[in-house]
Design brief:
- This protein is mainly α and 143 residues long.
- The chain folds into 2 domains: 69 residues, no CATH class; 69 residues.
- Helices cover 66% and strands 0% of the residues.
- It has 6 helices and no strands.
- Helix 2 runs antiparallel to helix 3 and helix 5 runs antiparallel to helix 6.
- The chain is flat and about 45 Å long.
- The chain starts with a helix and ends in an 8-residue tail after the last helix.
Length: 143
C-alpha cells in the first residue's frame, strides 16, 4: 500500500516519473499474474502512454530540473512545431468523436468501457502535445 501511495505522489508531482511508472507497471503486471486483471490492464495502458509521452518532463519537478525556466529562443524547428499541432488536434478531435459511444460514466464500470478508455488516452496524448507546444518543445531538439 505504501508503495502505491509513493508512486501516486511521484507521478502527481512529476518527480522521478520514469522510475515511478516503471515500478507501477511492474506492480500491475504482478497483480495481473495473481489473477486480478480487471483494472490492471487499463492502468498499464495509461502508464505506458504516460511513459512514452515523457510525463513529468513538461510540468513537474522533472521538467523544472531539466529546464529551470521556459525557453525563450524562437529558433524552434517549424517541422516539430507543426507536427505537434497536428498530433494535438487529431487526438483531441478523435477523443471528442468517441465520447458519444461511451456506454457509462459510473466509476465502477468506466474501466470496462473501451470508448471511454480510448477517449481518455487520446485526451492524454492531446494534452501532452499541447503542453509540449506551450513549453516550447523543439527548442533543444536537433534540426
Amino acid at each position: 500500500m505504501m508503495t502505491e501511495v509513493m508512486i501516486g505522489c511521484a507521478i502527481l508531482l512529476g518527480a522521478w516519473t520514469t522510475p515511478a511508472l516503471l515500478v507501477a507497471i511492474g506492480l500491475n503486471l504482478n497483480f495481473m499474474l495473481a489473477g486480478q486483471t480487471n483494472p490492471s490492464v487499463f492502468y498499464i495502458l495509461v502508464e505506458l502512454v504516460l511513459l512514452s509521452a515523457g510525463a513529468g518532463a513538461l510540468l513537474g519537478v522533472d521538467g523544472l530540473r531539466r529546464h529551470p525556466r521556459l525557453p525563450t529562443s524562437p529558433e524552434r524547428p517549424l517541422r516539430t512545431h507543426r507536427s505537434l499541432q497536428v498530433v494535438a488536434v487529431v487526438a483531441f478531435i478523435t477523443a471528442t468523436a468517441m465520447l458519444p459511444f461511451a456506454r457509462t460514466t459510473a466509476p465502477a464500470e468506466v474501466i470496462h468501457d473501451p470508448a471511454l478508455a480510448m477517449s481518455l488516452l487520446l485526451l492524454l496524448v492531446a494534452g501532452g502535445a499541447g503542453l509540449r507546444l506551450a513549453r516550447g518543445a523543439g527548442s533543444d531538439d536537433p534540426p
